[in-house]
Structure formats: C-alpha cells, structure tokens
C-alpha cells in the first residue's frame, strides 16, 4: 500500500480540486494546450465545437471541450519555469494520484502537453514571424536540478554547450532535455526545428540591458554560434526546459511551438503577430491526435 501524501505536500481546494489549477480529473482532457497569456485561453476555446468545463484560479484558466470531435483542454500558465513547475506537477497529480486516498495510482496516465507561445529568434536567418518547434529545451534556470530526474538530460549536448559558452560558475548549471518525438512528428514536422533556450527572466537572463549590466555581454553571441552534431539553438523564451524536463521525468509527452515575434540579432520586432498566432493555433489544433 502506498503511503498517503500529506496535505501540506499536495494541497487541495475545499471542493477536492487540485490547489493551484482548481481542476479535478473530469475537468481535464488527455491533451492540454498550454499558453502563457490567460487571455489566449478564451480565444482558443472559442474555436472549440463545444465547451464542457471552465475553471479558474489566479492567472490559471482552464477550458475543456471538443475540437473536430477531439477532446482537449487549454490552460494558461503565466510566465516562467517556476509556474511550469506548478502546472506540470499538478497536471500529473490530477491523473496519477488518487485524490480520495492521496496515493499514487498503479496504472499511470500519460498526457500530451503542447505549449503554444512567443519567443525571440537568436539566429539572423530565422526572421520575425517564423514558427519554431523545439527539438530540445535548454534550461538556464536550474529548476530540474532540484529533482532526481533519472538520466533525462542530454549529457553530451549539455557538456558541449557549457564548454562553448565558458559557462560561469556563478550561474545555475545548464541542462538540455529532448522533446517528444511523437508530438514533433504530428505537429512540428514542417516547422523550423532546433534547440530552445529557456531563460529564468526576460531582461538580464536574455541579455537585455536597461540599467543593470549583465554578467556576460557575449552570451547571446555564444548561444547563436553554438553547434554540436547539427544541433543549433534557434530561440529564447521562458518555459520550455521545465516543460520538457518535468514531462519526461513524469512520463508525459511535451512539445513547444513558438512564433518568433523578435529577432535578437537583427534587432527587429513583428509588426502584427496576432493574425499569425491565430493561424498557428489553428494549425496545432488541427494536427492534434488523441
């Protein structure tokens, strides 16, 4: 018999839903579209044929329904790997923890977790308004090092990145995790593919200087010029490494597809990315298979 998980370790709402997400198993589909912007949830669910559930807590909004006879959920995560830590762990708990006994289920459920977001291209040849599917997540955030992750890291690739960048000991140790091949083949097969670098912030961690200088002013150049066995870094954002790492460790499939709204090399920004984002969402929804 599994030992029951203490309430302090897995808190619940009064109605028995998981604490932060405010959802129960019946509120959740096997495929979950993850978006940073809470406002994007309504926009995506408006494309559904029907909506079964709407749940909300803080910045986390969840709508579950059907699109082309496929049941799916869309959920807002907010920004950053710290939020992804909450989202993925609680999504896993909803399907793999028996909430009545607070014990781990013997038979595990694997979710499809698909992030649709925006990013900044770090390669001159990838212009603004390009769509990038993340083959790997490169974490500069350190989150996954708090877990025993059963050898989920791409060790050779990670070592090559550390050596290429002459990584400072004052920064969290980077890690690289491969995304879902199944979801890449289904959804990202004709998109630009490459490593996505996940930063634990928007300004300094992504090399932006407003008033405070950054530790390594050449970091973005090092990121741009990294190459190992045909693996290149395509973009910068703030969630993918945690999504890939936690998903892989817990047995879920995950993929990030992002619209590049900025190019950090050419210093350009998209003039109007919203229609392109709508097209990207429609593409992903049509390619989701259950």
Describe this structure in words.
The chain is of the alpha/beta class and 290 residues long. The chain has a single domain (25-287), classed as Rossmann fold, CATH 3.40.50.1580. The chain contains 7 helices and 14 strands. The protein has helices spanning 38-45, 81-96, 155-165, 181-187, 219-225, 240-250, 274-287; strands at residues 31-35, 50-57, 60-67, 70-76, 97-98, 103-104, 112-121, 131-139, 175-178, 192-198, 227-228, 231-237, 253-263, 268-269. The strands form 2 sheets. A 5-stranded mixed barrel has the order 7-12-10-8-13, surrounded by 4 helices. Strands 5-6 form a two-stranded antiparallel sheet. Strand 5 and strand 6 (103-104) form a beta hairpin. The radius of gyration is 19 Å and the shape is globular. It starts with 30 loop residues before the first strand and ends with a helix. The model has no long low-confidence stretch (mean pLDDT 96).
What are its keywords?
290 residues, alpha/beta, Rossmann fold, 5-stranded mixed beta barrel, two-stranded antiparallel sheet, globular
Overall spatial form:
globular
CATH architecture: 3-Layer(aba) Sandwich
Radius of gyration in whole Å, from Cα? Answer: 19 Å
User: For the largest beta sheet, what order do the strands appear in spatially?
Assistant: 7-12-10-8-13
The helix tally amounts to: 7
Report the CATH C-level class: Alpha Beta
Q: Please name the fourth-level CATH homologous superfamily.
A: Nucleoside phosphorylase domain
CATH topology: Rossmann fold
Could you estimate the helical fraction of the residues in percent? 25-40%
